[in-house]
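Hey L., structure's done. Input below.
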Amino acid sequence: MAVENNVVSRHDIAQIRKSIIDLRRLGRYRQAHADILTLDAGLRQIPSVAIEIASLYLAQGHYIRAWDTCQLPESGIFEHGDPSRAFTPLIYDVDCVALALIKAYIGISRFARTTTALQVAERVCEVWFARNSKECSNNLIHLLPAGTEKEYQDHILRSWTALDPTCAADSNAVENNVTVLPSQILLEFYYYRIQVTAGEQTLLEEAEVKKKAAKRMDFLADWLMAHDRLREARFIIYLRIDLLKDPKNDQAILKRLLANLSGKESLAPEEANTRLDIARCIFKLNNGKITEEVREHVRKSEELFKKAGHEFGLIDLMDMQINETGESKRPEDMLSWKLDAAEQYFAKECYQQGIRCLLFSIPVTTDMGTIRERTQAIIERAQMEISKVGGESLEQLLFVQTVAQTVIRAPEYGYARQCIEDYILRLPSEMSPTMEGNLYTTLMMAYLSLGNLEKSRNWAEKALLTFRTGRSYINISDAALYLALTYYHQGKGLSKGSGISLVQYSNAANICQGWAELDHQVEYHGGEVAKCLLLVRCYGGMELWDLCDKWLDRAKDSANRNGVPLENGEDLLLLQAVRRNHLDDAVRFALESLEKCKATPSTPNFVIGQEYMRAATTIHSRFIHRCNVKAEQPDADWRAITDDLIEATKLANQALIYYKSSGGTEMAVTAVNYLYALIKNWPSSAKENLVKGWLEEVQFAEELYDSIRRSSLSTDRIESLFEKRGVVSNKELQKLYANAVEACLDQGNGSQAWLWLQRGKARALSDYFGIRALVPERLLAEIRAEPNTQALYDLERESNAAIVKALPQDYVTVRRKAEAARMEMRKNPLLAQLLNIREGAFNIQFEEVELQSALEMTGRNARTVKYIDWFVPEASAKDTRIILFVRSLDGITLNKTLSITTGFVEAWIKRVLEHPPEAHPPLKRSDGNNRLRELSLLIQEIEELTSEEDLLIICPSGPLTRIPIHAIRFRPSNRALIQRNLVLYSSSASTFRYCQMRAAAEGLKDNLPPENPTMLAVYNEDTDEGRAEREAIYGHGDYLHDRVGFNVLKGTAVTKSSFTDHCSQSRSILYYGHAFFDKLDVLQSSLVLSPESSNPTTDSTAGPSTPITSLPLPGCHLTVADAFALDFSRTCPRITLIACDSGTQQVASGDEPLGFIPALLFAGATSVLGTLWPVESRAARAFTEEYYRQLEVQVERQQGAGQRRVVLDLAAAVRGTVLHLMAKGSPGDWAAYVLYGAWFHIVGR
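Output:
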């Protein structure tokens, strides 16, 4: 048993406890802490004193102090302090038991140990509360000191009886004058507090636990009031109110307490807080309206707080009024008041109220600007205070709330993904199913926002499984809805009406339909309505309108019957009215909804923007309907009809204004596109100025998506590229670029149209290239020369370093600081250049010294370099004619609308390039040139817009990436494009520039690495023909060794490690062998290599090895994913891949390429030469022999002329080789070869 201090009397202990209690009641935490520090250590370790000290620190919100207070060496109720071990004799000491429960509860806040706390509570329940507690007590009687068994048992049983509702009125209990100690009340208080917390975290059934707790608290409160123990009754009722979300009943309970407290001067703080709680209840019952009764309670509460000298009671009053009247205030004002209130709390060292004030004021909104700045200030302040008081559970809550913002703020989508994934790697050991499931759900939303629907669905499934380990039906049901949502978005992202899209819609519908029925049965009406609305969207995607109406009617019926708001269903109601041609009703409903939304000051700008957009689309629908109906009526009132178009345009413009003011929503892009759709209907005379204004808005919309893309931190992990590809593939973004091109052409501005076309190309790849971007030494020197510029550059680098080291809970804050530094850098011309290079920003102007060097090194005039591009509309577009662009390096851009359509090109590809493996390829037939001539309209205008011998940078779009454009023939001359011009391919202007700068930088080096040309030859087909071919290939290697000086590796010497090593040491690589193109997963496409061997043959004269399969083996061959991970930046080699499909690329939406060409360019190659389709080995040998002969001729010519540095013109060598082969074979033999990257190469030593 615990022994009281022998020196200090019980009276003194009681006085010390009373002093601490009084200071706690008055909120004087600073004074209390100072007094506590003066107490003797032995006094602080008396359990009854420790209870009051811990309770004070807990009320203060200083969990470190509270936890440390509970660490008494001789007060543990479990052996070794382990709740899974046996009880100690102290299980019968009510003070020690109460202290154990207080410690367990503090552990929830301090370390998020809810599971441990629940275990402690349930063990205590066995002895103190359970129905079999008497039997349990008998089993533990051996723990009591000899001779005291009956005394202790009788006392405990009498205490139980006094607090047993079935025995409380027993006269014996009253006659025996049973004393119920304060610690026994505390014991019950903290037992139920732990139970309620466990229920809220879904470790227990929340509703059941709260009902049980409310019933018990009601009894205890009545018992305490009956025994005039009003202070204890007050904190019991503190737990009781809000448990059942019944403000009317809460008000009645509080008024009963107030009747007992009124007029008792010593209980002024309790009366003041009770009146404050009553005012809060009345606010809720009156929807935030201030009544006379509220005013009276607030006035009286204020008077009592002042009279008692309460430290922060007046702040509580202010905070309550701010909270309950929040809807009538602007969000930015609410944040300012909350931050100010929190600062006042912290000044009084009231951490719990101050931190809570901050945490529950963090808005989940897209709004940026002032709201974002104040929100960030709140987050940083909360982080600082939480770290001071040591609250792990508060850290978790702050983390989830911080991340919740980033999921809906478009410029911060990537922040959410990164910090949650890092956090998941280090999850606390006792995280609740609710918190863990919410993390997974947030990650699901992050991936959904980034466009990675597969990962989004995976995390939704994991969230559902996690929630199912808890006891909350609502959490499980909501998780099922989120899973259905991912299927819905997958269906929405596929071609409309396609089989696979219908499958995904059906998956979503099946989930929603089953759970809607379950929700109905368990009376989870909000869940039922939400699933019905998603069903409407699914069936709308399938165009099953009868089912849409059925589920929409059910959603409306359930919402009306059960008082549930029809959230996110307004647009569906409008669409239904439009489908039924109830257009006037729809317009009236949309405008009324808009006015109602605007009338509420707290409505976020994003929501107002949504209402404006709904009104615009509804009125536009009426405009289209009226046009169709009135078109055949000669007396139609067209002025009234066009008024709808004018009004719709105005409303759409207002929607855009509100979306822009919110700053963080991708809906702004949708609004910009919709506004263009409206403007196109205007007469030409009025449209010109509207289009000019619209193009200014496009710039904002694109910058928004740039920020989304950049929010995914650029790393050299392939996942980084795929995240950015997901963003780029967004349909609204691609539509934005197409609209911008069309608008510029409509304005007669071909130059701007080409710029917008390029802005939409390979942006993710450009970002990814920026990771290894070469920053010119000239630029770095200019930055160093300006101290302020250098300081800002250093700040940004320090911020980036901090990102890498940041803990997950600090990640968002650190990223925001780094982005703020970058915003400042963009204002500085020199640093803006650096950011543009690093971020792969588009720039085709050859103004930089490095790019001028590229022209000078190759002896080429800037006027002879032309950039060739095509705008290829989607096949579903109204006008699918392809538009040709020719741009000179001085910015002059010419364009022509061609008489060839997207559909014709796609049909040609299917007919000519997509043939069964066993079929003879059409381009290898005798009429192969005729097939290429069929596409002559693609290039015909190039004859007029360029000069012969110009270097043409071909940048194919969409389906054109699969076509050998250089091989297409002009009419009537029948010359191929490559016969007329040098040709180089590029994925985009920015990647082209990147490769030229890298190659030119090699020419500026004083000491280049040795050229060390290397050939890696693998050919292992184990047939007579295969062996003969292998001998021919290896003989070809010997020829190149003798003629050009190649170091030749053959057979088993060509492994993944040797490929990597030689690419890192050689500036000229030739791979000759098999390649495997995986259409389903391009990252697994591979160059076929030999397995690693302990004693590989590396001699250039090595003979053939044991044959291996030409299909890829796990870990053996070099995949595209492997290639992205390589780093050849020291040697910057030119690479030639003579292998089937080595130049084939999968091109995703946004002309994002994926394959060996972009992978090797990223790895550091300055150029890559590959093939568009399988080539015969014989023809390939002929190509390489002639190609390297052409290069050797260039070397000899320049060396003979005495040039100090040899510069190879790779484009000229490819052209010369193709012309040589063209005379001997079909296009299938010579048209497959494409050169990407730089057109030149500086020869090393």
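Confidence is low (pLDDT under 50) at residues 1-5, 170-176, 1095-1114. DSSP finds 55 helices and 18 strands in the chain.

-- N.
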